[in-house]
Structure formats: C-alpha cells, structure tokens
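so i finally got all the pieces together for this one. its two components total, 826 residues if u count the protein bits. some of the lines might not be protein, just check the labels. i wanna see the whole assembly predicted at once instead of chain by chain like last time, that was a mess tbh
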Amino acid sequence: MDIILKEIRKTFGRVTASDRVTLAVPGGTIQGLLGENGAGKSTLMKILSGYLRPDGGEILLGGKPVVFRHPADAVRAGVGMLHQDPLDFPSLTVLENFMSGRPGHFFPSRAAARRRLRELAATFGFAFDPRAYLDTLTVGERQQLEVLRLLSLDVRVLILDEPTTGISAAQKAQLFETLRRLSAEGRTILFVSHKLDEVESLCHRVAVLRAGALAGALTPPYTTAELVTLMFGRPVVPPQRQPQAPGRPVLELRGVSAVDDRLRLAPLDLDIRAGEVVGLAGLTGSGQRLLLRACAGLVRTTAGTVRIGGRDLTGHAFPSFRGHGVVFVPTARLEEGLIGDMDLAEHLQLVHPPRGLFIDWPRARATADERIREFAIRGRPDTRMRELSGGNQQRALLSLLAPPLALILIEEPTRGLDVESAVAVWIRLRAHCQAGAAILFLSSDLDEIRAHSDRIVVCFCGRSSPPLDPATMDIETLGRLIGGKGWDREAAG
Amino acid sequence: MDWTAILLTGLAGVLATAGPLVMAAIGEALSERAGVVNLSLNGTLILSAMTGFAVAVATGSLAAGFLGGAVVGAAAALLVAVAGITLRQSQVAVGFVLALTLKDLAYFLGTPVMGAAGPRLDVLPVPLLERLPVVGPLLFRQDVMTYASFLLIAAAWVWIYRTRPGLTLRGLGEQPAAAFVRGADVTRLRYLYTVAGGALVGLAGPMYSLSVKAGWKGTISGLDGLGWIALALTIFGGWHPLRIAAGAYLFAFLQWLGVVLQPFLPGIPSQVLQVAPFPFMILTLVLVNVGQAEWTGRLLALLPEGGRRRLAGLLRLLRANPPAALGQTFERE
C-alpha cells in the first residue's frame, strides 16, 4: 500500500516535533527513517499509526485520504505499529496478549487463538509457549509476538520504532529476515532507527529527519558520511582508543559465584587494573548482568572473594563498595538510575549531600548549570528527568559521577542513543579512565564492545571466558563464542 | 435442634454476613482493575446503608432502598472518577477525604431515621434446592441479596477471565497505553468500571441496614471500619473474585468463631478473638506473596530443575500483583 504523508505538523507546547514533513513511501518497500534522538521520528510514526493526532497535514493510504482518531482505526485501515517501549501486558500470558484487541466473539475461543498463534509463529520460525507470562520473555520475543499479533490483524503497513534496541544479534538477524519477507509479500515496512548500519543493510530507501523536519531522502547508492551529515548537519568523529599503561589492580575477583532465580554464575577469576576498560559480551541473560551486580555488591556472592583496590569487600553491600569508589550505572535509567520526577539540581544534592541540614538552592542550581554546560545536556537545572530524552538522561547520569572513582560498572552505556550522544558518553567515560578509574561494562552491541574494550570477557550460560584481546578477535569468532560454540578450544575457562 | 443443624445455621449466617463484603470488595476490584483506586469505601458504605434504610422506610419498598444505596455508591465513585481521571487529581487523596466526609454526612443526615422501625429482607428459600442436605440450608435458604452476592462472584470471574471486554479490563489497569493501541477507549472504560464498581459498593450498605445488621442506629450501627476491610480484601484477594470471596468468607468465619468460642475460652479476653482475624489476614497476605521476595528466588535457584519449575509456577499463581498503572492517569500525548 502506498503511503503519502503531506505537510504533517505537530507541536507539543513550544516544541515542534513535526515540522511540515512530506514523505512518500511506495508499497512493498522497506523505508528507513533515520534521525538522532529527539528528531521527531517517533512522533511522525505515532501520527501515521493513529496514536497521536496531527495539528495539520494529510495522510493518504493507497491514494485515499484517511483520518485516524484512534490507533484501532489505523489497524482497521491496515497500519500497525510496534512501539519503542513494547506496548503489551507483562503480567498476562503470551496467549492473552495475542488475544487482546482481536475482534471476535464475546467469549473468545482460546483454542482458536492458540492455533492461529502457532500457525503464524511456525511461518516465521518463532517459538512461543502460549501459557508463559510475558514478563518471563526477552524483549526480542515480546517484539516477535507483537509483530505476529499485528500480522494476524491483517496489517499491510508495519511501522517499527527502534526495534533493535535490547534484542540479541540472533534475534535481530531473524527480525530482518522477517521484514524482508514481509516486504517481498507486498507489505510496506517503515523502519525507524538511529543506527546507520541497520538502515544501510536493510532498507530500500531512507529518509532523514532533523529537528522535526525532513532533512533529506535518499535511495542507494549513498555513503555513510552523507547520512551522518544529513542527521547532524555535520560529520561526527568517533573517539580513538588510546592504550593506557595499566595501573594498580582495582578489582580482583577470585572464584566468585552468584545465583539468581534463572542462572548460576560459574566461579570466575578476573583482575581489572586502573585505566582499563573491560567489556562483557554475551546474549541477554548469560550472566553479564549478574556478574556486574556482584561486583557492585548489589547481588550477594555465593562463593569466592571480591577485592576492591586491594581491600576485601566480600559480602559487603553496595554502600560499602560506593565508599571505595565503585559506581554502578544501570540500563534502566528511569527505573533504577534516576528519579523521574526530580530535576538535576536535586539529583546532585542527593548524590553529593551538602554538609549540614539545609540546602543552598541557588548554589545547587548554579552547580547544576555548570554540569549542564559541561555535559551538553539539553535541559535546565529544574527540568524533571522524565522529560529529558534518553541521550540527555544518560548524560545527566554521567554528570552525577564525580571523581575520584576507582571502578565504573556500567550496563549498556549507549543503548538507545544516537551516534553523537554515544560518542559524547564514551568521551566522558574515557576521561574517567585517564583519571585512574577502571571500567567494566556490558553491552549487547558487539561493535561497541570491540571499539572500546581493552579486554573482552564473553559470558555464556553463566560461564565466563578468560579475558580476550580485541585486536586478535574478529567479529565472527566473538559471535560464535557468544552463541556457545568453540568454548573448549578458544576459551577453556 | 442437633449440633449439625446449629453448625449449618451458623455457617449459613457466615455466608450471609460476608455477602456485603463480597459485593464491596469485588466492586472495588473492578474499579482497580481498570486503574482507578476508590478509597472512599468506608464512607460510601455507611452513607449508602443510611440512605438505603431511609429510602426503604419512606417508600416502604426494599427495592427502592437498594436502588438508593446503589445510586449513592455510584455517585461517590463518580466523584473519584471526575477528580482522578478528568481533573487529574490524586485519587488517593480524593478517596480518603470522601471516606471521612461521607461517614460524617451519613451520621448527620441519618438523625431523623435513627432507631426507626424499618423493613427487613426476608429469607427466600429456593424451592427444591433448599431440601438438599447440607448445601440446601447453606446456600439456598438465604435472602435475595445474598444470592446476588453468590452470583456476582461467578459473574465477575467469567467477565474478567473469559470474555473479551474482561481481557481488555485486565489490560486497562496494567498498561493503559497498550490497551489503547488495541482499540480501548481508556477514559470511557475507566469511568464505566469505577461507577459500576461504586454501585456494587453502594449495594453493600443496604445489605447491612436492611438485612445483616438491620436498622440505622447512627454511630453505633457497627458499620464503621467495614469499608476498610473490604479494601483490604480486594488486595488480599489479588483482585481476583474467587480469592476475594474466599477472603471475605474466611474473615466472616473467624469473626463468627470468635463469638462462638467466647464462652469456652474464658481465659482469653474477648477483644483478642475479635481482632484475631486481622493479624491472621496479614499473615496470609505474607504467605501468598512470598514468591516475590529476592531470597525466595535464591532459594528456588538451589532446587533441581523439575521441582523448581513447578514450585515457581505455584508461587506465580498465588502471587497478587496490583494493577501496574493503578491510580495513574493516562495521557495520549
């Protein structure tokens, strides 16, 4: 189905999220939509899917003008959207999620829905246990289910908003395969991303948004540099890794093990020295998260010793680790890292409490202002955290880390961030390394791991490889290790 | 009368006294499942009890009395809905203030009918079925509202777990945005369920004043606190009609036991038996939700795979999670 967006306008307060965007997408193609965080990609797609109503402009589907008052109108017209944060019900089962919103009888048939789900899942090579609760599934699986649900409603246009955030490399490959197949069947795919390589490898055409307006539309061949320049208005240069002379040991793990309800960590030895960056690679749920949390005292270890800066902190809780210069930066920024309804000035006062009972607010705001300039945060000292974009939240989190730090434990440092924000994050992290901190990070982005790690540890099913040298590791070997192959040869750990 | 007959009469009484609690708690569960917390229950219950009684006295019609109670309950819920959904105020604060205000309003407005002689709901045995042994006297020799409370348990369960609108309802309080993209009109449905739930709470009041604790005696009517218990039962019952009913019957049974056992246990002060149901309920709540504790996860991890799965599944079934978006407003943009 051909889609034409004409002069679409949308403002939120004083912010123009969509500035007269006009875009034509021919049926059966995969259209990429690129742009940095906050460029207006999601807004435009939410308008097309009926979630938001435009302030002006027109949508034409197959040549006919349409008006969607409600997302259900869009679905009936054949337009479905996979939202960036999965819009599903975590506390319900797979089958119930699949059934909800489907037209049918007052007493819906579970058996029929189960059959339909099985059929669809089999066509695309997905596997679901219909009785499993959704919150036991990975983000990738939830996404697959949502795609199947939309397809079962006979959607002809599928919008995917940043679908590759938080899914494994294998799931990503599977998703791309599915999308190619759907487009070959004549469906139109709109693929929203800030990741250049994905758009380049998947999409037939690409449109770039900047500050709410269409910066340009390209069809291959084009160069990556062209895309970057369209996205940011100028080229972006990634930081170069400068090898550090390793300092004294910061983190020493000896035979450390931990368990949660899903996984047991095999005993592990690991030394990290000041100035070093160690990346943890692996599929989600392979033990990286548990290991990182054990190093912060957030999860109790069941065996072995944890030494920070030469001091034995085994069995201590996080405050004790923090007292020795260990900081932890979680993936779930708003849930675990920041307080959504508080602003940066308040956060700074919480993290670095003032002496005495009273807070000097003018000074607190001045400090926050300094940080905002230093870290290039788009916001004011009194902007609440939940109102900031993902990239700015991450910058705000980093602005809370004050030297001297011994060890930075960080989950997915650049998840959901555009190229420019990601570069800014790593420049900050490197500065901490120069100042003598060590970094242990986990990432599902292999390129990030390879670009920034001095050594790489691969986790698989709770086992951890000995530290590997990224210089001698090609991406295929790493990918095999992550998938659990070649462990006895490459990583006899 | 032999002992069995006495016991059966007692237990039938337990089912009848738990009836209003079942009504109120399931009404609240519907509202909370839609994402709106109506904390006004204690005040609503007392005001609807007084209104129901006054209307029944004035008109001589029991049906009019129950209707009056339902209207009061629906109106109180509508206030919570308007303040919470449309005006985006804190549902907790509005509900709490209403709980206090409506109670005093009931005592103030109820003065003229205080101690008045009024109608009372009669027992209406179901022909044939009442003759069944055990089940007959327990379930089929009750008044019409107690039958209604039995039906409500089944109807609410079927609605929530077996119908299409019920599935939407479950999503509504969980993730309104997801319900919205699946075609639900979040605001309208929330209004609907809150008001319907409030009407059920409003029926519970006259069930006391026209049946279980017939009459209106102002502050000594013995109704104060029951609304809070209904709220606790909603949580204790995990927003699930069958579990709510189980909780209500357990509570009524323990209270009855306290009365019955009193003469045999002279050493124990009567107050102990009266309040015993409350700590007992808290203990049950703890046991039911033990699966969520971090240490349970660690302990479970040590078990062999097969047993671990089964036990984790059981704990998951027992778990009572509040609707994730409870008390939050939904904004489309």
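Chain A has two domains: 3-232, 249-490.
The first strand of chain A starts at residue 3 and ends at 12.
anyway lmk what u think
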